[in-house]
Amino acid sequence: MALTREFKTTIAARAQRDARFRAAMLTEAVNALLAGEVDAGKAMMRDYVNATVGFERLAENVRIPSKSVQRMLGPGGNPTAQNIFAIIQALQEFESLSLEVKGRRTAA
Length: 108
What we know:
- The chain has 108 residues and is mainly alpha-helical.
- It has one domain.
- The chain is 68% helix and 0% strand.
């Protein structure tokens, strides 16, 4: 289901005023990627970028053309590990956030 303009506007407005919401958006995107839900993680990361920093500014920071970054995070995109980690690093810096991975054993 496609997101409506009203929904996207609502998300962007909340992201602009709520740092905790922005941090949660980015954290969930990275968690999805780590869980192997690559398409969902890229979609969440794309929503975060659209609601916050924008693709032009992100592209300048990671030194990758904006259209390439948009394609990487798009539905058919296949970013390299180097590029996805560069994007994550740049977004953490933009948000003044430091994400960390914590391991825990799952039940066998």
